[in-house]
Amino acid sequence: MKKTKVICVMNQKGGVGKTTTAVNLATAFAAVEHKVLLIDLDPQGNATTGVGKLNLKYTIYEALLHLKPFEEIISKTFLPFLDLAGSNNELAGAEIELVPVLDREKHLSIALKHLKSNYQYIFVDCPPSLGLLTLNALIACDFVLIPLQCEFYALDGLSRLLSNIQTIKKTFNSNLKILGILLTMYDKRCLLNQQVAKNVRDYFKNIVLPMEIPRSIKIAEASSHGKPIIFYDCKSAGALRYLELANYLLTTFNWNSQV
Ligand SMILES: Nc1ncnc2c1ncn2[C@@H]1O[C@H](COP(=O)(O)OP(=O)(O)OP(=O)(O)O)[C@@H](O)[C@H]1O
Ligand SMILES: [Mg+2]
Question: What average pLDDT does the chain have?
Answer without folding.
Answer: 94
